[in-house]
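#struct-help
A.M.: can someone run this one for me? Single chain, 231 residues.
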Amino acid sequence: MSTPAAEETLARDRPLLERSGTAERVAEILRQRITEGVFPPGSRLSEPSISAALGVSRNTLRESFQLLAHERLAVHELNRGVFVRELTVQDISDLYVMRRVTECGALRRASELSTVDLSTLEAAVRAGRAAADEGDWQAVGTASIAFHQAVGDLADSERVSTTMRQVLAETRLFFVLAENTRAFFEPFLERHERILRDLERGRFGPAETALEKYLRQAEKQLLAAYERRGT
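D.P.: on it. C-alpha cells below:
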C-alpha cells in the first residue's frame, strides 16, 4: 500500500510532468522512486493515490504500470492490484551477470574516447561520504546506485544508459534484503573511491578489474543476505 510519505513525495514530483504528462514520464518518476526505496519490494502501487498525487489520469497510470511490468519492476496480481516486484536468488545471479557485462563494457568503451567526464562519478562519491558521515546508510545506498549509473554513462551511449537505469532499479529491490547498516554499505565507499582514483589517472584496465571484483563481492553479499532472510 502506498504510504502518506510516498504520496507526498509523488506530489512534489508533479511539476516534473508536462501538462500532457505521458505514461513514459510517469513510469520514469515511479522507476526513480523505486530506485530510491520510496516504494520497497512487495508494496502495492495504489492506483487512486498515485493518480491523485501526480495529477494524471487512471489510464495514463495504467499504461505506466504496464511499462514497469515490462521492465520487471512491477507485477499485476489478479483482483489485488499492482505491486513492486520481489526478486529471487536466480534474479540476483542473473542481474549481476548483466551488470558485469554492462558496467565493465562501459569502462572499456570509455577508454576508447578522447575525453571522459568524471564529474558525476565524483559527485556520487562525495554524496556517499557525506551520507556516511551522517549515518544515513540508506542514502549511502542511493549514492551507490548513482555511482554505478555514472559508470554506465561513461560509455556515452543512450542505450547503455537506459539499460543501466533499468538494471539499477532492479538492483535497488535487492537492498530490502539487507538492513540499512554500516556493515553492509560502508565497504561500497572505499570501492567507489578506488575505481574513481584509477579512472582519474587514466588507468581503465585496473579500474575495470576492481569493478568486476566489486560486483562479484556485492553479489555474494546479497545472496548471503537472501539466505539469511529465508532462514
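A.M.: thanks! Residues 26 and 64 are 6 Å apart (CA to CA).
D.P.: also worth noting: Strands lie at 74-77, 81-84.
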